[in-house]
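Hi,

Apologies if this is the wrong queue. I'm a grad student, and the batch job for MFS transporter, DHA1 family, bicyclomycin/chloramphenicol resistance protein from Pedobacter hartonius produced an output file that my downstream script rejects. I'm not sure whether the problem is my script or the file. Here is the sequence I used:
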Amino acid sequence: MTKKRHFFLILLLGSLTALGPFSIDMYLPGFPAIAKDLHTTVAKVSLSLSGFFIGISVGQLLYGPLLDRFGRKKPLYIGLIVYIIASIGCAYAISINVLIVLRCIQAIGSCAAAVASVAMVRDLFPVSENAKVFALLMLVVGVSPMIAPTVGGYVTTAFGWHSVFLVLMVLGLVNLLASIFGLPESYQPDKSISLKPRPILKNFLVVLTEPQFYTYALTGAVAFSGLFAYVAGSPLLFMDIFAVKEETYGWIFAFLSIGLIGSSQVNTLLLRKYSSEQLIFAALICQALTGIVFIVGSFNGWFGLSATIFLLFIFLSCLGIANPNTSALSLAPFSKNGGSASALMGAIQMGIGTLASIGVGLFDTHSSLPMVAIMASTSLIALTILYFGRKRIKNKVEASKDGDVAFH
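Support response: The file is valid. Your script probably expects a header line. Output copied below for reference.
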């Protein structure tokens, strides 16, 4: 593969992966306007974000078997078409409940792009390069939270929140055309993959019972759910509690995204000297300590706007190191079931992230404590899962070696 082709594929896969995050972030500055127009509260509007996360969780489980059965491209096309239609519907939603449902459908469409792009990394690149490729994808994905809220703030101010969803519709169309004309079919359809419920569940069970998969998939998902709590709580935190304007909120969100993007690229350099396992462990310790400081300080009212931004920056930077490595190690054991493994990993991540975002939305209080408490808790739980899961992996490896010795 030439360098030019390598770059183009990563850019295109990154664009597909970024569609979901862009759909999440771009309408955040419009929360107050949506709440006013649909006669509801900002906290209730945040449930439309939870609806999006639910749609991604469900959709990924749906697309996993489809990607293995029919190849990567056809399910991707169907998902993007669903996304485009749902985006138009969101633009003309007449109530918050309608918006929540349409956001869920929009997410089901967008997650085809997310699952296909992750599976294609496993298809197109050597396993040894997966962590580096995922880090590069995070660089492309990371542009979305830098651009999306800022653009969303200006679009909302100039044209209203409805226009944000029309912009998303155009982005979906661009990704569809780019996929049709620029992506190779990286996986030959496997007609042995059944679409009946029992074989699908059995296939997922095979993936789920692999110690390396469930250890790193759960660790990564729980740690990453802190980001979901932050995204759901940030409009309330910055625009209500700290009373910043929509445009300013967009710039703050963009600045904080630099932590996530920058650390993911530092991760590529660190992989030359340290293993993925070492980097995950170090990142989670730093993230947990940051979460503890954050919740203690928030409870006692120690932190103003600047200190809050600083702590969020450190927290997100830890995720930028942990996430590419947990993703790579989760998928490493699979070649035949790459689509299913990718879908299951994404569904676990989004499912746990959904719970975190709902937890923030349920507490309709003028306080940052629900968001901060969830962020701190998820960090500590992820570290615990990693500690015990690594022991299970080690035990399996040792048992495998003993079996080989007995066989010979």
